[in-house]
Write a structure and sequence with these properties.
Elements: H1 5-15, E1 20-25, E2 32-38, H2 47-57, E3 68-74
Parallel strand pairs: 2-3
Antiparallel strand pairs: 1-2
């Protein structure tokens, strides 16, 4: 059973408090997602480390319950 956008967003925000998460359903099937995650915890981390933090937030569901996730990460900017 695919993961909903709300479930993915909840898991990411629980692991990365203060994160902004924007979800896009790429195929209309609730199984292929794009996520843009902006989190202060990414400061000082390279892209690979940032992506690993998001995958860890999904507690091993990546590649199983969650078939595909296109991931974009960023550090918040001060306005």
């Amino acid at each position: 059973m695919p993961m909903s956008a709300a479930e993915i967003e909840t898991m990411i925000k629980a692991a990365l408090p203060g994160a902004e998460v924007e979800m896009t359903d790429l195929a209309g099937d609730n199984d292929h997602w794009a996520a843009r995650v902006i989190a202060p915890q990414f400061a000082g981390k390279n892209r690979v480390q940032q992506h690993k933090m998001v995958y860890e937030a999904l507690s091993g569901r990546m590649g199983g319950v969650l078939h595909a996730l296109q991931l974009t990460t960023a550090i918040p900017t001060s306005d």
